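check this one:
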Amino acid sequence: MVEREFGKGRVVAFLSSAAPVWNNWARNPSFVAAMLDLQAYLSRRPEETLSRVVGSPLELKLNPALYQPKPEVRFNYPEQSGRPPVTINAVKPADGSGMLTASLPETDVSGFYEARLTRAEGAAETRRYAVNVDPAEGDLTALDGEQLAARLEGVKYRYQQAADFQSTTTELAGYNLGDALLYGLILLLVGEQILAWSASYHPAKRHPLVQGGAA
């Protein structure tokens, strides 16, 4: 199997047969998975493999034979940026490579950028590019004391290891109001019972009558 770039794409040639004449690969299930991956590999555009980050210029290289003389490229910013479109003329670079170049230096917002231009036959063409935030900004690698001190030079701070920080469960939880509310509810119920007993009807206590020395 040999591969070579052709135009904007790639070409792969198998120096064997897919039929089970010279090999038996087509009878193996891995043949289907390999063909699907090969199709995806050959159909993707080379510029889509580049990783574009915020702040790096967005450059387009155009073949002068396929586009109008001095083509104008209209760059549309992502919707969340709120910036109006910018039109930039494609020019020949100083290295004399023959390819026209249009560059958009301001890419300070992440999102999808559009480049609209017109081909030599008058057909409109739109290219879209994804500009992402640098993954290094989300690096969660821990720093030791010396590395942190070098980056925070001139800043007053206190560095303490997590293993040295110990506290009890009650200190972390703060003041617990559950016990106080429970005792208060018990007192309220006891007071309610006392008030109910005192305000209820109680019959008068009868005293025995004494007549002639006998009860």
